[in-house]
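Appendix B. Raw example, untouched.
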Amino acid sequence: MQSTWKGGPDPREESAPGEASGRREAVGPGEASDRREASGTREESDRREAVGPGETVSAYEAVAGQEPPGVHGPTVDAGPRGLRRPGRLLAVVAVLWAVPMALHAWVPNTGVNAGSLLQTLLPWTGLGVPLLLVLAAVRRSRTAAVAVLAPAVVWATIFGGALTDKRSAGGGLTVVSHNVNEGNTDPAGTARSLVGAGADILALEELSDASATVYSRELAAAFPHHAVIGGVGIWSRYPLSDVEAVPIMPWTRALRATARTPDGPVAVYAAHLASVRVSAAGFTTDRRDAAARELAAALRAEPAPRVVLLGDFNGTYLDDALAPVTSQLRSAQREAGDGLGFTWPAAFPVVRIDDVLVRGMTPRAAWTLPATGSDHLPVAATLGP
């Protein structure tokens, strides 16, 4: 007889404990785990597809409401693209370094006189080339290494010839110029050093009344002829005539004389242009530039075909502010020297502000002499007719 259950669902429709256990055992523990993992995998895949590629961190936060373990803030691009950016920056720096070197003659000389300052220190701009090459090697940037060729080529064009030894034999006249420094504590020793240079004509600048007497006494045997006016003097193995001061400043800083050499007369100038200063106001060169213009006027009016200008110009041959003078004469160091020939300061020379400039003569050799008691190095040159 079939009975009817009136108090709820028919217990026969539910699985008995044994049947449920049997079903789990039929599936097996490994298969249940696999089903859960498969379900989780499908769920994570759906989440990634929902947010799109590259947004898994954001998707995790949106779905799980928290950061994944080990993630703290945005990621940093350390790939090849990020590494190449400093290389491009170095390339830009290299090109920018080359531009003022190449255009130094067009740098304005108004206000702080940036043009004169750049041209005075121009040889040292070459130090940027090896520095940029090292940085390019560290960054492994071929772009930067190629860009460094720009300042290297510009510097080599301007100064490459100065690094070769252009001295040659010959020449009948040896000249020496030296700013002996008014504060020199050993003028007698300085004079003896200069005698040993074997000069035919010697020009001294920055003489005091007391030191001029010492130099005249110590140099008399080697140089029987001399003339001193103000702070400058000329000593010569050959007779001097037509001695006169050259008014380039309110006080005497230049003189002219005619030396009667075996190869004919030579107009010899000794000059000491006004000093310059580097300060908060910039590179102050006004008095020097004014003195250069006065000296240039005297040189233009000089009738002698052969001219030698010896002195301390407080500026380099490349300084365009001195162009009124340097455009009329040639530098013996640039034509017949060995190296850049820096002369100041004597302890560690960084600029060449002392020079031998000529017109109507041929430089055969030019060089610097050993240090004396002065803060300048002496300069020498051998000149041909």
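End of appendix B.
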